């Protein structure tokens, strides 16, 4: 491949970067751009803005010559050839790279079709290229190859490519050779692709809408979520009885049980020595079959043994695959594999041993090579058919007929290459499902029942499968656990059979749910507390609850793993736990932007509020853009689910336009303060949870289907501090709305919230109180202006009880300057004395800068310099607040290291602090 001739009007730039990769993301769940898993590559194409495809003579023809499959891409025209039209009309390089990445994946064997390319706001020439995938590593490698391939068609110096290392995959060999690219991509796919059986089961589950998770690099798959999940490993299911597998693995025991049940099986015995084998062969009468007792895939099996010399050879071969050997009579008939699922026959395939047909010119080895060129043949079980390998077993079989691989068979001469007809040794399959006689069907189904396998492969010899085996002779020679499906899915001839769907229908009978309820909660503030409230209510309902929060992963309220667990990885951990009946998932902005959601949809999604936090990070610069990110949670709600939104928040009204399911509003302004919008919603029979005015925080009321239901007084929820903490009343409203949407009883909701306190054990770092040494301490994770403002309202209502209010305040350094200054201004208006502190790493800011900006805000609010203290280290700042406190003071501490700070508060002794000060 060479670069195109430069267009006549091409002006060589004074300096050019060509194409430059800026960042990439792998979205594994619903995300800002789509509900589908996608790869995002952000790329700088400024140097190519004036060169769409129609301005580059020969570009389109050269690209189509390399990848003719692009000719069927529909693109926005949604018809074959649509993308070619776009190329000839003129389209941009990012769009072209998107289509090339899709085509390369398809050519490698992973068919995908959907993508989009979008310009990045306020960054001319920068684009997000997005395309779907089935295998992450393959998709990233295809993206890298697409960029290099397209760049190679551009004029110099625009062919330069930078930043490919950000894609996290090694460059492919021979980047200018499409055939080499495809071969490299196929090699990548081969290392991670599922085998035909597992892949068929996964696709059948996906067609049913059942969630699928791969649990290892092999074939261990989880279908469904939590306590409703089922697991498979190839065609072994989680319900397959181990004792049945053991029986099937012991061929002698299998035959004994089948014979005792009156089913046709060949006579035979188990031996350990060749002398015993010879004696039994003479007793059974020739010909006989020799095979290992616990072999599989036809390994070590020799058929048609008619003399002692052949038996000795066969015995030695069988010993290579097991310590004990079966000698049994040879029964007549062709080799059939019958597949029985859940007691019912679903497919029959006649297996034909690997063979070649002579042409009078080519040797057996050459004919085998020709057969192996069939693209359907691969190694092991990767493809529909298996490559034929010349090995000792084949050489021994050829020797019986005085042949070698170098022998040239006559034209039309059939040369059998294997004793057995297994696909794993190169055999082929012919579908016979419609031909099997009812009597033979009944025998197979009884055999599966006798052994006890839910998914059972039966090796059945019969001269004519359409006639009863009692008349023709033949019988069952093996019963197999973990049977392969590929001979039925894509037989060499005959009708393909969908044998995977019956397995999925067995694991998940129609009407049985594969998903546990998912409650997903997002917002700027209140996520953790609301999640804990919902979890407490669900525990009172008798459910086993898995929960994720910024504090960790919990099971029924017990901390299982301490971490910031508000991202997709932690969500997947909960959904994979087979003990979990319901998942309550705090869902933060960062994880959505980085990877998307950790689930494909929620039963109940909630957006609590959207305020100006985290702006200026990851391309999210406005509150409207932040609302889009948080809106992903409710845009992914199931069709019959519920989206819970804050009626008092303007951004939630904006989000509601795209929310799925039934919308449920909550509001602190009920009764006569009810907004016109909410009043209309309730009048139409919509669901809403509101706080109606009254003493001690008012009364919480549920409106549903035109009915008004009093839930409880706000003051009866301990977390509201007797009704003065409006933000926890709002959190309780959201929790009630989520649980009511799932039809939990009012009594259960009331009991759960009544038992939910603001103790450190129930809700660490969220309005925790500790009274000691004549002072009251409040520990609360108010880390942004909206959170501090809400906390300030509570402090204001408590202020009359205390002499002074002293606070330790901080905000992460990656926030905007204006947000940090605002945090200081709010603190200056709330506290009598402040200790500002910083995050340990500064979040990209020099040491002391964040404290300086907050101090600037506090001074602007009227605080004097002596009232403001700056300490970088968090625990040192805590110590200072504790030392500043006196009996009768209220000390408000906003931590990052929640447990460490709480331990510091509990351990503080004023007398020790005084002694230390005097000593210093």
UniProtKB/TrEMBL annotation:
Domain ATP-grasp, chain residue ranges per copy: 255-508
Gene3D superfamilies in UniProt: ATP-grasp fold, B domain, Mur ligase, C-terminal domain, Mur-like, catalytic domain
Keyword annotations of the record: ATP-binding, Ligase, Nucleotide-binding
Enzyme Commission number(s) of this protein: 6.3.2.29, 6.3.2.30
InterPro entries in UniProt: ATP-grasp, Cya_phycin_syn, Cyanophycin_syn_N, Folylpolyglutamate_synth_CS, GSHS_ATP-bd, Mur-like_cat_sf, Mur_ligase_C, Mur_ligase_C_dom_sf
Protein biosynthesis listed as a keyword: no
Superkingdom of the source species: Bacteria
Reaction equation(s) it catalyzes: [L-4-(L-arginin-2-N-yl)aspartate](n)-L-aspartate + L-arginine + ATP = [L-4-(L-arginin-2-N-yl)aspartate](n+1) + ADP + phosphate + H(+); [L-4-(L-arginin-2-N-yl)aspartate](n) + L-aspartate + ATP = [L-4-(L-arginin-2-N-yl)aspartate](n)-L-aspartate + ADP + phosphate + H(+)
GO molecular function, one term: ATP binding
UniProt keyword Membrane present: no
Family from the record: In the C-terminal section; belongs to the MurCDEF family.
Subunit structure, interactors included: Homodimer.
Described function: Catalyzes the ATP-dependent polymerization of arginine and aspartate to multi-L-arginyl-poly-L-aspartic acid (cyanophycin; a water-insoluble reserve polymer).
NCBIfam families to which the protein is assigned, alphabetical: cya_phycin_syn, PRK14016.1
Name of the protein in its database record: Cyanophycin synthetase
Organism: Sphingomonas trueperi
């Amino acid at each position: 491949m060479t670069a195109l001739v430069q267009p006549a009007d091409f002006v060589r730039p004074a300096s050019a970067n060509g194409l430059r990769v800026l960042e990439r993301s792998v979205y594994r769940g619903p995300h800002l751009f789509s509900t589908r898993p996608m790869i995002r590559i952000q790329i700088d194409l400024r140097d190519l803005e004036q060169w769409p495809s129609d301005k580059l003579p020969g570009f389109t023809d050269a690209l189509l010559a390399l990848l003719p499959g692009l000719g069927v891409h529909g693109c926005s025209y949604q018809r074959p050839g649509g993308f070619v039209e776009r190329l000839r009309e003129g389209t941009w390089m990012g769009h072209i790279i998107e289509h090339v990445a899709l085509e390369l994946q398809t050519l490698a064997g992973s068919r995908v079709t959907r993508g989009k390319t979008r310009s990045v706001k306020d960054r001319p020439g920068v684009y997000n290229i997005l395309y779907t995938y089935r295998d992450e590593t393959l998709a990233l490698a295809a993206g890298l190859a697409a960029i290099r391939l397209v760049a190679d068609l551009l004029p110099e110096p625009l062919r330069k490519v930078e930043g490919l290392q950000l894609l996290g995959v090694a460059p492919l060999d021979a980047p200018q050779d499409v055939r080499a690219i495809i071969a490299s991509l196929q090699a990548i796919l081969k290392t991670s692709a599922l085998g035909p059986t597992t892949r068929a089961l996964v696709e059948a589950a996906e067609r049913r809408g059942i969630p699928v998770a791969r649990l290892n690099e092999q074939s261990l798959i989880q279908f469904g979520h939590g306590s409703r999940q089922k697991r498979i490993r190839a065609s072994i299911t989680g319900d397959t009885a181990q004792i049945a597998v053991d029986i099937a693995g012991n061929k002698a025991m299998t035959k004994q049980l089948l014979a005792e049940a009156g089913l046709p099986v060949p006579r035979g015995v188990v031996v350990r020595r060749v002398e015993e084998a010879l004696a039994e062969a003479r007793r059974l009468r020739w010909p006989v079959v020799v095979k290992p007792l616990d072999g599989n895939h036809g390994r070590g099996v020799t058929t048609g043994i008619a003399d002692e010399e052949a038996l000795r050879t066969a015995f030695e071969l069988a010993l290579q695959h097991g310590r004990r050997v079966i000698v049994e009579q040879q029964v007549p008939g062709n080799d059939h594999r019958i597949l029985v699922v859940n007691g019912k026959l679903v497919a029959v395939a006649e297996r034909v041993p690997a063979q070649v047909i002579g042409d009078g010119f080519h040797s057996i080895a050459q004919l085998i090579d020709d057969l192996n060129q069939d693209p359907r043949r691969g190694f092991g079980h990767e493809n529909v058919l298996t490559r034929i390998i010349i090995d000792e077993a084949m050489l021994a079989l050829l020797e019986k007929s005085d042949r070698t691989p170098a022998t040239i068979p006559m034209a039309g001469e059939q040369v059998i290459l294997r004793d057995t007809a297994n696909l794993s040794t190169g055999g082929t399959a012919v579908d016979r499902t419609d031909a099997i006689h009812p009597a033979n069907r009944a025998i197979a189904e009884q055999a599966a029942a006798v052994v006890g396998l839910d998914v059972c492969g039966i090796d059945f010899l019969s001269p004519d499968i359409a006639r009863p085996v009692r008349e023709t002779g033949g019988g069952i020679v093996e019963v197999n656990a973990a049977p392969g499906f590929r001979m039925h899915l894509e037989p060499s001839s005959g009708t393909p059979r969908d044998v995977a769907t019956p397995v999925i229908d067995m694991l998940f009978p129609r009407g049985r749910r594969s998903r546990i309820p998912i409650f997903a909660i997002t917002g700027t503030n209140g996520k953790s507390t609301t999640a804990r409230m919902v979890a407490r209510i669900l525990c009172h309902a008798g459910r086993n609850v898995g929960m994720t929060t910024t504090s960790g992963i919990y099971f029924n309220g017990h901390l299982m793993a301490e971490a910031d667990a508000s991202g997709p990885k932690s969500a997947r951990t909960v959904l994979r736990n087979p003990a979990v009946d319901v998942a309550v998932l705090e869902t933060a902005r960062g994880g959505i932007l980085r990877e998307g959601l950790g689930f494909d949809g929620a039963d109940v999604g909630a957006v609590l509020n959207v305020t100006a936090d985290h702006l200026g990070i990851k391309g999210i610069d406005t509150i409207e853009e932040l609302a889009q990110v948080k809106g992903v949670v409710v845009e992914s709600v199931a069709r019959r689910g519920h989206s819970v939104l804050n009626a008092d928040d303007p951004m939630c009204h904006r989000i509601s336009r795209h929310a799925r399911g039934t919308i449920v509003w909550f509001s602190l302004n009920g009764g006569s303060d009810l907004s016109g919008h909410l009043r209309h919603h309730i009048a139409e029979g919509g669901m809403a949870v509101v706080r109606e005015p009254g003493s001690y925080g008012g009364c919480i009321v549920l409106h549903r289907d035109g009915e008004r239901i009093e839930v409880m007084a706000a003051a009866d929820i301990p977390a509201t501090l007797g009704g003065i903490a409006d933000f926890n009343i709002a959190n309780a409203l959201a929790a009630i709305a989520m649980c009511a949407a799932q039809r939990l009883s009012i009594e259960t909701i009331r009991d759960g919230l009544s038992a939910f306190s603001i103790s450190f054990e129930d809700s660490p770092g969220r309005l925790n109180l500790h009274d000691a040494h004549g002072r009251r301490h409040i520990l609360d994770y108010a880390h942004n202006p909206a959170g501090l403002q809400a906390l300030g309202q509570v402090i204001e209502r408590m202020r009359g009880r205390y002499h002074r209010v002293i606070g330790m305040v901080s905000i992460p350094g990656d926030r905007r300057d204006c947000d940090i200054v605002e945090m200081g201004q709010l603190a200056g208006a709330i506290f009598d004395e402040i200790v500002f502190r910083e995050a340990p790493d500064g979040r990209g800011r020099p040491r002391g800068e964040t404290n300086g900006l907050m101090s600037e805000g506090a001074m602007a609010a009227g605080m004097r310099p002596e009232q403001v203290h700056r300490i970088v280290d968090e625990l040192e700042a805590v110590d200072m607040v504790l030392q500043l406190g006196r009996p009768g003071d209220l000390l408000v501490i906003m931590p990052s290291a929640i447990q460490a700070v709480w331990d510091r508060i509990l351990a503080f002794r004023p007398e020790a602090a005084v002694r230390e000060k005097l000593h210093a």
